Amino acid sequence: MGIVAGLDSSSDSTRIVVCDAETGAVLRQGYASHALEAAEGGGRPSDVDPQVWLRSLGEAAVGGLLEGVQAIGVSTQRNALVPLDAQGHVVRPAMTGADRRAQTSAADLVDALGGREGWAQAVGLVPQAAQPVTKLRWLRRSEPENADRTAFLMQAHDWLVWQLLGRPVRRTTDRGGASGTGYWSAATGSWRPDLVELALGRGAGLPEVIAPWEAAGTTPEGLLISAGTGETQAAAFGLGVGVGDAVVSLGVSGSVMAVHPEAVRDGGGSVTALADATGMHLPVVSTTNAVRVLRATAQMLDVDGPQALSELALKSTPGAHGLVLLPYLEGERTPHLPHTAGTLSGLRTESMRPEHLARAAFEGMLCSLADALDVLRGRGVAVRRVFLLGQAAELPAVRAVAPALFGVQVVVPQPADYAALGAARQAAWALGTVHGTLDPHRPPAWQGAAAQILEPGDDLPVGQAVRQQYGAVREQTHPGAFPA
Fold this sequence. Notes:
xylose metabolism, Carb_kinase_FGGY_CS, ATPase_NBD, kinase activity, carbohydrate metabolism
């Protein structure tokens, strides 16, 4: 069938995988950092010259890496806004998803559409600082000259695809990327230009949203470029998750997402209704606190990071002798408690030991993420197994505790460039569709990720008891935080 490549341009590097289009076997890989180059460009760390992404792509592809490749898929960091003027020139450096300057603008926008429920019903998400719609409001207020020059809106993967194709008249995006903007609805599959105008104070052009299996175009050299998508969607596609699968990501903050056939409507705004990279949906629930809880607890106990904390936690027992940590150290998104603090409950003489606090930190972090899983379940999303991602997934305490608390099989994939693999799989899909060798509605059946499988087994009742203990403290401390 041929050879395809997947390009993942994250916040700090570009990774390329070259794969057999039929099996997904990785043939070659390339890597280039671009964080230092972006920083040397001046300005704020969250402002990045998009040319950095192109130069990094070239560096990652040296040595004939792309020789024989017939199609490329592009995955990039989510929520990076690239405003263009009427001639297609970048108006200002791209504003990345890590940009937090627009937090006040987010609150303004929420109020402007009648609150959280108004946004949740309109586009399936409540604006946060990261979303492009919020960046548009910030641009209007802080850089009005640049706002006036802005004629067209792109995200990082849209812009890179457009550049690879030689900047054609047609400009495209995919459902996954569009669904995170704050001005496209996954439920209706359509742009909301009125929300662009609400944020920017004027209208702006938007790219054509194409299907996951469609090609964005062909380069003058005959190289097919697929639709592209955001890193979240590409990683899910690279993992091979399907209906009934959830992905729990353990970063400094946490997220839970699951594949679902329909857009999830959530009037309270706890769920961000993203589209995925296959034509289905990818509802996401985010938590503010995840691995930061482990790091803070390790520092408090004067142990050397999460690994040492894990060893200490395993000296305790399930339930941590009644010690419960509500891990809302930086406020919390789920439940919506932005101004709260963490709570340590159950202090007794026998529980005031380092190993019990270490165990409570792991249980609190994972119970909080299990709460997020329950938010999805409560809206009709099936969760029959959980993929656990992030470096913390390798910690023995996480592996020991997670299956019983989540109550389902836990899959810990081996480390790999899953976003780049997802982009390559999308390229293979577009290539096969063009050649008539693949069904447009059925992606290539690549082998799933190699992984360790963990079952709750006999520990399930113990996990349920720990969750009940946690839930009782949460409800007593924050009554009604999770309405029935």
